[in-house]
Specification:
Largest sheet: none
Structural class: mainly alpha
Strand content: under 5%
Length: about 60
């Protein structure tokens, strides 16, 4: 069975995955995640601590 098709199936998808919708239409770029992991963790921590904003005023939208 195709692993990607298995993840899209509502019968095997973990709770909340169906809400991801179009996000699951392309393969995950693991190399990009590996390159940006430390930066993402630092930003997530700053969001949790309230020392960063998710959408700063005047910032362009992320792609």
């Amino acid at each position: 069975m195709d692993e990607e098709a298995e993840l899209r199936s509502s019968e095997v998808a973990p709770p909340g995955w169906l809400a991801l919708g179009a996000s699951l239409t392309r393969p995950i770029k693991w190399d990009l995640i590996a390159q940006q992991h430390d930066r993402m963790v630092k930003f997530a921590t700053a969001l949790r601590l309230g020392t960063a904003e998710a959408e700063p005023q005047g910032a362009p939208a992320a792609l």
